[in-house]
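#struct-queue
[09:14] JT: dropping the first one here, sequence first, then the structure tokens:
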Amino acid sequence: MAEFKPMRKSENLFHTLLSREIYASGQVKSFPAGATILNINDYVKSIPIVLSGSIKVIQTDQDGREILLYYIKPPESCIMSVLAGLNENTSKIKAVVEEDAELLLIPVTKASEWIQKFPEWTDFIFALYQKRFEELLDVVNAVAFQKVDVRLLHLLRQKSSLFQSREISVTHQQLANELGITREAVSRVLKQMENEKLLTMTRNKITLL
């Protein structure tokens, strides 16, 4: 099996011994797009490392409204899952597969053990924490200060980058859920963007121009 490769910023930090332990202890599983791999209030028993595809991390309130927090791409993991697992707490987020994904699932007990055993693993976790903290600040800033059209265009560009395509298969309701706004608001802003020649729309598909 191929050797595990950590985040780009830490690319040369994981030595062969840790890579071998990661694959020996973990289990590789495939998940289709739309699959929920972690729900709010679930106990975290394994920590996912994305080998291919992508995952979106969502916050949900008591009324079922959602907002997208960030995406997880190869070869990253979810710091929220890491922290909940290491502290034996329940999850505060929902993780859903955005595009068909292959994940390496690491037992929480091993992840905790490696913090003492491998400084490289600790560096990996801290790098994740910093990256996600900055992304969460961007979300707060967007919700507090940016107009809906700016947030929507940013989200579409994120999806375009993830799928490596200008054509995005997504519904207006899905976009509304991820932005935490109404479907009517999304439809209105998308129509405005289409009139401004920023994109074109067909049924459940949006193409960035």
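[09:21] JT: and here's the second one, same format:
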Amino acid sequence: MLRRALIVAVASTLLPVAASAQTPIVFVHGNGDHAGLWDNVIWRFESNGYPASRLFAVDLPHPSASSTISAVELNRSTPEEQTAALAAFVTRVLLTTGAPKVALVGSSRGGMTIRNYVRYGGGAAHVSHVITGGTPNHGVFALPTVQPNGEFNGAGPYLRGLNRGSEVVPGVKFLALRSDSLDKYAQADGAGLGMKGTPTGVDATGPALRGALNVVLPGTDHREVAFGPAAFRAQYRFITGRAPTHMDILADTVAVLEGMISGHANGSPTNLPLANAVITVHAVDAATGQRISAPAYRAVTTHTGRWGPFRASPGARYEFEVASPDSTVILHVFRMPFPRSSRVVNFRLSAPPATRPDSVSVLIARPCGYLGFGRDTVEFEGARAAGIPPGVPTVDRAIRWFGAREPVSVRTRVNSETIVVRTRPDDKRRLVSAEFQRE
């Protein structure tokens, strides 16, 4: 009997809990971002038995903030517009799952939107947990004379309203995650905001909330404090009440991929679906970046902007080519293998980078974290990437130009991961990107 009891106890730690017993979680991206940045966090929840059917990431349609909290600007959003979009998404999740409440996890501006929804948008009745990661809860600066009506001014009306009285809402559990010193938007000096030598009125404690459980994640930057492994550990423990069993992302036998294609409009990134975009997926050689065979997948988006499903091999490398009749760029994205399925493999077409005669550009991008000289290894062909400043990590990409006479393989590296891309110099609109999503 004892042996049987032990077997049952061990098995219970490995099998996922029934979906109906798990609180749905909605992940909310930050300023200018999209849902795809949450993949690592979602995969880690899944790797610990959390049902995929209870994990959601929202694409807020106009992710960039307006110049003031009330300005109506094309392809930008006010706090109230963001809050309304989040409220609508939460309602759909509750209807889909039948759950009484959700947990909300926000990165940066996403945490401010969550707080506004819970405090002033009726969200307290529908939310059990709130987690903010790197959210500038007291502003990226607190200066009455600088952008006085800006969303990110701790001395402005929006954040003063959110912080008036109690900074948390009764009946909802709050966790605030912050860095010890490397969050670019929680610095006493305004250098990272283009105001070097100007005191900002905030410091590393700015993302903390009075009345919340406040957890410091040493060495994390502004995005890692929401998307990184340490952030996941804290999120999982706070929502489930126990530590995760697995910190690594466990590979599945198949990775079914889908997502949305969007673009830029009026100088701002959007999460609006792009129709008539063409996506072509090629399996590539990991050592050279060269395409191995005929396209593994091809689709033209409809009004939904959605692509997929594409059944990928969890161990394979792929190149994603994305183009649109109205875009000035043809995007070629190379990524590490996908260990699990994802519904938010999103691509956003942007303006092409600056060009140089007889050269093509290769971009290293790290959407889920920043790059800091001295902290991170960032290389093109074994040489250190230029343009990455020392100190607090403040940039998330690096670029280098290569000769355009013929295609070349370029080995890119960020810390322990390497991606080899292949240039395509036949068209100046082509932007080749090594996208480092993993942690």
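[09:30] RK: nice, looked through the second one.
[09:31] RK: Helices lie at 2-14, 39-47, 79-97, 109-120, 157-163, 224-227, 229-240.
[09:31] JT: good to know. The first strand starts at residue 25 and ends at 28.
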